[in-house]
Amino acid sequence: MPEDERPPPATDLSGPAWLELLAKGELEVLGRLPWSSNYSFLAAVRLQGSEQRAVYKPGRGERPLRDYPGGLFRREVAAHELSSALGLGIVPETVLRLDGPHGKGSVQRFIDADFAEHYFTLLNEPLHHAQLRRIAAFDLLVNNGDRKGGHLLVDWEGRMWGSTTACVSTWMQSSEQ
User: Fold this and answer.
1) Which of 5, 17, 92, 110 has the CA that lies 20 to 30 A from 45?
2) Which has the closest alpha carbon to 144: 91, 86, 87, 85?
């Protein structure tokens, strides 16, 4: 996406400020991310004059998996907490919300990225290999057997994130029409 067409960058919040915003802010669902296997919503989160985008995944919208217990949203919160505790910064800030519009679920910082990029395009670029290996090792550690190609996001500063949210660009494109 050309630089002049990108949405304004998120406010430069520290990790603790993001966590507070996600945990305590007013959560407004903007729309469903239609190609997610579970219900996932693009949301606005507002607190003390700050407004940012987030991804809200309510537990009630999960499709059960035979090889994982219910409550996948809890695994997302735990993955963020472990990534943070290990100083890896792989998983965007993610919190548990008991009071979401569709019930309890996870709320994760929205990563604005070039959504045409995904594992299969990133793999072709040797520049990304070290980051891909680091995320693969983290997925092994947390027993993440659900990594999809679109769950790797490279933000506009070149940082790679191991998010569990995908198909955001499709929603954004359809909402602009």
Assistant:
1) 5
2) 91
* Separation CA 90–CA 86 (nearest Å): 10
pLDDT (tens digit, 9 = 90+) per residue, 132-172?
A: 899 888 888 887 766 666 678 888 888 888 875 433 333 33
pTM here?
Answer: 0.82
Question: CA-CA distance, 18 to 54, in Å (whole number)?
Answer: 10
DSSP 52-101: EEEEEEEGGGPPP-TTS-S-HHHHHHHHHHHHHHTT---SPPEEEESS-B
Quick one: 9 exposed, middle or buried, by C-beta within 10 A (0-12, 13-18, 19+)?
exposed
- Rounded Cα gap, residues 62 and 38, in angstroms: 5
Of 175, 11, 14, 162, nearest to 89 (Cα)?
162
The values of phi and psi at residue 42, to 5°, are -80, 135
Helix, strand, coil proportions of the chain in percent (round to 5)? Answer: 35, 25, 40
Does residue 88 contact residue 102 with C-beta atoms inside 8 Å? Answer: no
